[in-house]
Design brief:
Structural class: alpha/beta
CATH architecture: Alpha-Beta Barrel
Largest sheet: 8 strands, parallel
Number of helices: 11
Number of strands: 10
CATH class: Alpha Beta
Strand content: 5-15%
Shape: globular
CATH topology: TIM Barrel
Number of domains: 1
């Protein structure tokens, strides 16, 4: 059934009822503090110990890693590292195959296993990462039904265990371009599965991230806040405020999303980058402080 108009009309009306306005002008230092907390994912660093140390030292208020990394480090002192840094685990990025129905049962079991570890640490969210595809031969329309069915089953399983499942669209995967994002979000069962956009990935994939965030704001439960400049480092991304993404407009929208509690800053890893992971995270922090966001007191500060 084509329910795009019904779903889109509902979302548009909901947004208007919140009085959403897209304001692109950045706030200056001294602006009122924002509601949402700011965390950081660990993808920029090589290993969790370095990521946890730097993220905590800069006063970020939460941490995310990959599901398989979480599973490995759960047995290697992750609890002690997080406790020592006073840094909560918020979420895990969980790559799953959405297009192959023969793998669905095992993929659901895998993400439930990873989500169980997140829950054990007090986290709330399993970020659902779609599988990669070979674009020249990929037929989204032929795969759409399987993608939606997999997301619905994953969402129900995560809901049953008290966790949030948030779809994260991603370049190079089965859900990349604007029409694919809208088609899936308009078709999946949003009683159980939600949206966790990566705004930098949206821009890199050719979408207007402000438009996507505004259109689906009531479905958003998780966000990767990432900037994109198309440059040679960090998979064409960059520290916040250095790229082309209209971050002030996105942040203004997210501040109105009552289901949101924390935003996760992210920057990909890179070979021979011009800045260290600590420096990139510090740059993004400074940008967000200009937007009015507050950070925790630093612990184990980097010398």
């Amino acid at each position: 059934m084509n329910n795009r108009m019904d779903r889109r009309s509902f979302l548009g009306g909901f947004g208007l009822s919140l009085g959403i306005a897209s304001q692109s002008a950045p706030l200056l230092s001294g602006a009122p503090a924002r509601r949402l907390k700011i965390g950081h994912t660990g993808i920029t660093w090589r290993e969790p110990p370095e990521a946890i140390h730097d993220i905590a030292a800069l006063g970020y208020r939460g941490y995310e890693t990959f599901g398989d990394v979480l599973e490995t480090w759960d047995q290697k002192g992750l609890r002690e590292m997080l406790d020592a840094a006073n840094l909560p685990l918020i979420s895990a990025y969980c790559g799953v195959n959405l297009t192959d129905p023969a793998k669905r049962k095992d993929e659901v079991a895998k993400i439930v296993r990873w989500a169980g570890i997140v829950k054990k640490y007090g986290g709330t969210t399993a970020v659902v990462g779609p599988n990669g595809v070979k674009r020249p031969a990929y037929d989204f329309n032929a795969s759409k039904a399987d993608i939606v069915a997999s997301l619905n089953e994953i969402g129900r399983a995560l809901t049953d265990m008290g966790m949030i499942g948030a779809l994260h669209q991603h370049t190079g995967t089965c859900i990349e371009y604007r029409d694919e994002v809208y088609a899936v979000l308009d078709s999946m069962d949003t009683k159980y599965i939600f949206f966790g956009p990566d705004v930098g990935q949206l821009a890199k994939g050719g979408s207007d991230p402000v438009k996507v965030v505004k259109d689906f704001l009531p479905l958003i439960r998780h966000v990767h806040l990432k900037d994109w400049d198309g440059g040679p480092n960090w998979q064409q991304y960059c520290p916040l405020g250095k790229g082309k993404v209209d971050l002030p407009a996105i942040l203004d929208l997210l501040e109105t999303a009552k289901a949101m509690k924390i935003i996760m800053v992210e920057l990909d890893s890179s070979r021979n980058p011009p800045m260290t992971p600590f420096e990139t995270a510090a740059t993004s922090k400074a940008y967000l402080q200009q937007m009015g966001y507050r950070f925790a007191a630093a612990r184990n500060a980097k010398g």
